[in-house]
Amino acid sequence: MPRGPLKCKIGPSILNADLSNLYAESQKLLDSGADYLHLDVMDGHFVPNLTLGHPVVKCLRNRIRNTFFEAHMMVDEPERWVEPMADAGISQYTFHVEATKDVIPLCRKIKEAGMKVGIALKPGTGIEAIRQYVDNADMILVMTVEPGFGGQKFISDMMPKVQWLRYNYPLLDIEVDGGVGLNTITACAEAGANMIVAGTAIIDAVDQRAVIASLRETVESSIHKCNV
To answer: What is the count of structural domains for the chain?
Structure first.
């Protein structure tokens, strides 16, 4: 599919936000310069934690009309939730390659429901697991922690996956998620990531706007090499 030019996009994960004030916290992030919201959906099976589902997403969408919402589906049987998430107003449905045997039919189902397709891989999953599917996706998510909990330490060994994707797909949206912050953003940017998910680094910051701006500046300084 045609892609490009590559743009830096900063998407705070709201997993560590005050979920009792989800709308206010989300709007504050957007007012501070976030490009999109990264919504972590966990089912207690694929990962040992439980978070929000499509009813919460729908309520948030009713208050925030035009922002790009990415659902990071850390769930078994991701096929089950395509239609509910589309109905809730999700813009991009990102599922784990480890969670399904029917990757291409699932990609088709997501697109038919009117959403973009993201494919995610855990730290222990090699790049060969998604090689054949890259052309079916709008974005590849390289997890830089084990999915399931916020606040984990960044795994720098994941950067070769990002480098391989960027080398072979110069204009592909490549997202990193997990332990990404001011101390690790340079590694992500230099490897070629252009979609940056940051949780605690943004949520817990005294000045969210300054952190988002700093992350963006680091990524944009590397991105121009891909757009030449």
So the answer is: 1
**Cα–Cα dist 119/88, whole Å:** 20
CA dist 29 and 205 (Å) reads 11
User: Which tens digit of pLDDT belongs to each residue from 114-153?
Assistant: 999 999 999 999 999 999 999 999 999 999 999 987 778 9
Q: Can you give the CATH number for the domain in which 44 is found? A: 3.20.20.70
**Residue 18 annotated as binding site:** no
| Residue 157 domain-assigned (yes or no) | yes
Please give the residue range of the domain that contains residue 51.
Answer: 9-227
184: burial class by Cβ within 10 Å (0-12, 13-18, 19+)?
Answer: buried
Q: Determine whether the annotation assigns residue 151 to a binding site.
A: yes
- Sign of the CA dihedral 170, 143, 103, 130? positive
Residue 109 inside a domain? The answer is yes
Does 124 carry a binding-site annotation?
Answer: no
Q: Among all residues, which ones are annotated catalytic?
A: 40, 177
Q: What is the pLDDT of residues 153-212, one digit of tens each?
A: 999 999 999 999 999 999 999 999 999 999 999 999 999 999 999 999 999 999 999 999
Written as one letter, the residue type at 77 is E
Is 2 within a domain?
A: no
